[in-house]
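tl;dr need the bound structure. longer version: we got a ligand (uridine-5'-diphosphate-glucose) that a collaborator sent over and nobodys looked at where it sits. i said id run it. heres the input, straight from their email, havent touched it
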Amino acid sequence: MKLLVTGGAGYIGSVVAARLLTAGHTVVVLDDLSTGHRDAVPDGAGFVHAGIADATDLLDASFDAVLHFAAKSLVGESVAEPERYWWNNVAGTLRLVEAMTAARVRRLVFSSTAAAYGRPDRTPITEDAPAAPINPYGHSKLAVDHLLAGTASARGLAAMSLRYFNVAGAVGRHGERHDPETHLIPNILDVPAGHRDAVDVFGTDYPTRDGTAVRDYLHVDDLARAHELALDATGSAESVGTHGSHRIYNLGTGTGYTVREVVESVRRVTGHPVPTRERDRRAGDPPVLVASAERIGTELGWHPQHDLDRIVADAWRFTTTHPETITR
Ligand SMILES: NC(=O)c1ccc[n+]([C@@H]2O[C@H](COP(=O)([O-])OP(=O)(O)OC[C@H]3O[C@@H](n4cnc5c(N)ncnc54)[C@H](O)[C@@H]3O)[C@@H](O)[C@H]2O)c1
Ligand SMILES: O=c1ccn([C@@H]2O[C@H](COP(=O)(O)OP(=O)(O)O[C@H]3O[C@H](CO)[C@@H](O)[C@H](O)[C@H]3O)[C@@H](O)[C@H]2O)c(=O)[nH]1
């Protein structure tokens, strides 16, 4: 297939683009490099340096599908500058979807998020849990889920929203290169890498087994496999000639780890001491986010393969073998 990958110069988009190339697809990356890196675009992919709002200049009927990763995704920034999130994530995606309709490209896989659920009252979280985001980032992603549900039926789009939980790990030369880096695992790995003396633990008074927040960490390689399956499924949805379809799937493992357990995993895997500093809770952090991945397991046959130590080991290998890519 010929695929447009928006955000393919970013962390997750570059991993998925590389996998799609290996599977034999033709990949064109569209990225404005606002948080991505030109050298992260996998070899063999085409590259267009532009925003998603300009996709209309690029998309034509030769494309079979779009995988849409491009977005702003910092919760704190979204609270400080909500307009940026509505313009970039929502208005930008609206333009992209309109460009798809005009070009008759009917298959879309979209990066949604667990942030759509806000502070869920039950875990593991199933897809029918109430969507109630608690920050503009989550609102912007949920708005796109709604946009896709409507355009799927009105325009015959076969769309999937994959609600990722905490994505981590690395594949080959593709790993996390955010600046600033807010994510837990790369921040902990900064300690054994010698970039910082200790890691901050945000919140030690949560109602969890050791007082720190619980998250469901998913290997980016497992996530990439889920995208291949979702992409295939949009083909079946399109070929049955329905009036479009939109399906939401959680992407997580079903297992949660506390911040202290993740720190322990880094100690185990790297063999280095990792001092911690206890800090206040980070604003807007829910205590526990753990996915039920039953729906995607049953319907698409996706089952994650990698555990936390493997995630940390691959992220550590990336950190130590690609020091030139560390931006912090
Ligand atoms: N990392 C996670 O744990 C996580 C969890 C849930 C959802 N997500 C979603 O996954 C996607 C990828 O996240 P990531 O961690 O790889 O982020 P990232 O910042 O590394 O990648 C995003 C890419 O999109 C590009 N981009 C942003 N706005 C653009 C625009 N208007 N036009 C063109 N390109 C644009 C950036 O330059 C960057 O290359 C995002 O949609 C994010 O919301 C990530
Ligand atoms: O230096 C750090 C960084 C993080 N944390 C904590 O670690 C946990 C995980 O934080 P982080 O890695 O920043 O991920 P989340 O805030 O859970 O958000 C990620 O996971 C969400 C879904 O679960 C997605 O919606 C977001 O896009 C994605 O960034 C949270 O309790 C943080 O407070 C620390 O204690 N110290």
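gonna send this back to them w/ a short note. Residues 73, 113-115, 165-166, 182-184, 187, 199-202, 213, 215, 259, 282, 285, 289 surround uridine-5'-diphosphate-glucose (ligand 2) (CB under 6 Å).
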